[in-house]
Amino acid sequence: MSALELTLLYLLAAVLGVVVCRSFKLPPMLGYLAVGVVIGPNALALAQNSDGVRHLGEFGVVFLMFVIGLEFNLTKLRSMRRHVFGLGLLQVTLTIVLATLGSLFLASLAPTLWKMGWQTALALSGAMAMSSTAIVVKLLAERLELDSEHGKRIMGVLLLQDLAVVPLLVLIPALGSSPDKLLVALAIATLKASVLVGLLLTGGRRVMRWWLTLVARRKSEELFVLNLLLVTLALAWLTERAGLSLALGAFIAGMLISETEYKHQVETDIRPFHDVLLGLFFISIGMLLDWREVAVHWRMVLLLTTVPVAFKLLLITGLARSLGATGGVALRTGLYLAQAGEFGFVLLSLAQANRLLPAALVNPILASMVLSMLATPFIIMYSNQIVMRLVSSEWLQQSLQMTTIARKSLNANKHVIICGYGRCGQNLGHMLEREGIQYMALDLDPDRVRQATAAGDSVVFGDAVRLQALVAAGLSRASAVVVTYLDTASALKVLANIRAHAPTVPVIVRTEDDHDLEKLQAAGATEVVPEAIEGSLMLASHALALVGVPMRRVIRVVQDQRDARYNLLRGYFRGADDDTVNELEQERLATVTLPLGTRSLCQPLGSLTLDAAGVRVVSLRRSNGKTLDADASTLLDDGDTLVLSGKPAALAVAEEMLLRGRPS
Length: 664
Hints:
The chain is of the alpha/beta class. The chain has 3 domains: 387 residues, Na+/H+ antiporter like fold; 132 residues, Rossmann fold (3-Layer(aba) Sandwich), CATH 3.40.50; 90 residues, Alpha-Beta Plaits (2-Layer Sandwich), CATH 3.30.70. It has 27 helices and 10 strands. The strands form 2 sheets. The protein has a 6-stranded parallel sheet with strand order 3-2-1-4-5-6, with helices on both faces. Helix 3 runs parallel beside helix 11 and helix 14 crosses helix 17. It is elongated and about 100 Å long.
């Protein structure tokens, strides 16, 4: 197979693998591993695990460590130090120590099945200590749990695991030395790493800032990207020449750049190289897996999957509990971190390259790691049910949380429920408060809730996605619900709950753009407010004003655009303070709900000739909460609510026409 054919095969396999995983909402890494198994020499044999591919995979690890170094900063470390150097350090240290001792004990009991020295046991325990940052962070973000109590602990542990890879990258190659030279090799490797890292970090930041500024002044995007590749690979080459690993140099390069003002630009530019090359690394790992060996030794694979997962689950849960977490938070932390991780593959391949791993164990260990990662999305999906079943106090705590929400919302009526109390939610809450409108905000950040509550804001800790929280916040009595955070998946869950239990309550959803507009409207959103469109309208208004367009015309043009985009902005609802001379003849909005017995029921909307009276139908909301863009053929039904636009006198006539014949 030619180089071009091999490249096309890898690209095709990678694309198909990622498409399938995205379809099932699984991390792309699992797709890369799966296609590596399928096209590898042990399955379809479409490609061999060639040196060229393996080297490309190594570059993927280099860029992975570069990104980890780029994200590392002392401020972040300091803010999370309790979880990083408490729970995280204990988890990594105890996992390595206990797993090493356990492996040696097993080797003494079954030397034919589990034959290994302490060096191999130590290398394997280092790989076992890792969890999957890519999978767990993605799922935490999707579930809006990054700022939760268990989310903070999980992020602290993952950060320490990423840092722990650095000494392990130095340790594992030294463990491959002959026993009589092992201590000398360890001492030399530690000395080299200390001197090299010390020199680079001492004067490297200043040199790196000067060099990046020099390159940036050339104002060439191509030159800047080439320079990034040069710096990353040059430092990786330098550490390799010093007898250390390529990945260590890349990590240092990332750390040096993280202290400069070019960090965010570098993150954007390096991401494509990082993602593509790391995908090749996981394909090359998948190609090592021989499914026939796995089928033969399926009992060992099952044992290697369940025992490490159960061990890490119990260890992390126990540590989190002993460090002050509640039972539910501790168990969730353990469930999220029990699987193997991508750095485990990195350390495993490094151990194999240094002849530390027996050939008979390669396939069972690889298969067990892949299986544990495949199980992770499902474990996390059902984590709440598992916690509720196993932790008796969790039900009581959640009940107390719902009681707290219900007690705060007890006197609220015709209030607005705000889902998410970030900057947008807080601005909305303050505006409602100034207008004398009650609101109840739900947020998952305990620090934000504590500070906002102390300031007198009406906010409680609660997950708006959960129906119990919405009901406790007075959903049935609310006049509206506003979803303020930019997460379509979560907004759809909120809409599904409201549509099922309070279909007549209007819901306004904030989104980043209008890509999911139809999906959200179909799910029951009364109005969707895309930030991109609002931003463009503000930009247009400022631009028009600056080029000399009269302000009145600017306001009218922008309002016309909003009217075309938002049905509910075509006019306004009358209030007690609107009865001025100027306001009385302005077009406004009115709502009319059709009770049982009115003559207009079961008639087409066009037959009522509302337009002849000078009234326009803005929208129609069915009794089940679904909003329609009604036309002349739309049949009216019991409980329908019409939003009408027109002048006051015309609206009065239209209301009389619609309600004629209603029961007394």
